[in-house]
């Protein structure tokens, strides 16, 4: 590891969108030595996890090795699961790596830091609803997406053999739930027998349940109207005021007693901080399980620990609520920390983080993209069609440039453009 005298050792816990972008931009800057830690050996851009689950993803960033990225961008990658943070000693403890049978593959390790970045992301809570853990899929990581794909493929094969449509029930009408539903409609056509006369939609029923009175609460009415219109075009049923009491082995049941048959149930009901955040150290935690930080993203208990992305509870100036956990916020925080961390390591003051809301986009497969983008002048615009799709794709292009660098990122983007997904692209293996 880097000599203690340099005072430039930065550990980043978590290789999600924000953590990896930060590592890629910060490595080597002003002599900073960066180590990225993640329990997985590959990166998957979480905003496209629903596409990975549906089998419609086609991109050079579908999965990419952290080891390869570390070599390309000049940071060190350490694979392992974070167990504890020793704030006094400025050390992070990693647990031993084990195989599926529990055999130890690599020993526990301790890594020292001069500045620590916690970017461990969030998780989908069950809110105490019966049967979620046993009977539903939560799309928190690649392993969940793989689990869903296996269940989905099995349900579709049974539907093709029996002539009875498979039923997918998604709890939660946020971006994850609605985008997954749309991409499943695209994947459905891959299971139609060659030359089949059935129109698409005969093999698959999709229902999205929302506990609130409206679909995707939190967006404006004009955008919601466009979203609901597109979901109807895809023959996706939406049900509001559906407060769920239980996920049963073959159905979803509401508190009012209504039941929706489900070959596969997906639980996409919001996001909170990862439970590990509360066990790592004596951080201040908000009511959504996220670490409280000041306006420079430093934790309230230790100025040598910064927090970003879904793990951070940061309240912008003039706002009463913390920022929602979005890839947009994580990306802006990565840009901010890439500039301010070298300054902080020198013991100098930095300007506070300022979030600029650039809008919201929802990609609905063959029904197109709808969204609202910021103008930069206080107003924003409702968009849909090709312009909205281009804006959505630009989010990933921006991520590719940051992670791979301008040259490699441009080559990767060009490769994606030459080999786009055409129709269903269900991938039944990792």
Explain what this protein looks like in three dimensions.
The two termini are 33 Å apart. Strand 1, helix 1 and strand 2 form a beta-alpha-beta unit. A five-stranded parallel β-sheet has the order 5-2-1-11-23. It is an alpha/beta fold and 430 residues long. Helix content is 30%, strand content 24%. Helix 1 packs parallel to helix 9 and helix 10 crosses helix 11. It is globular and about 65 Å long. It folds into three domains: 195 residues, FAD/NAD(P)-binding domain, CATH 3.50.50.60; 136 residues, FAD/NAD(P)-binding domain, CATH 3.50.50; 60 residues, no CATH class.
Brief description of this entry?
By secondary structure, the protein is an alpha/beta fold. It has helices at 17-26, 49-54, 66-73, 132-135, 142-162, 175-188, 221-233, 277-280, 327-345, 386-404, 406-418, and strands at 9-13, 33-38, 42-43, 64-65, 76-79, 82-86, 91-94, 97-98, 104-106, 109-112, 115-118, 122-123, 136-137, 166-171, 204-209, 236-239, 244-248, 251-254, 259-261, 264-267, 272-273, 291-292, 305-307, 312-313, 359-363, 369-374, 380-384.
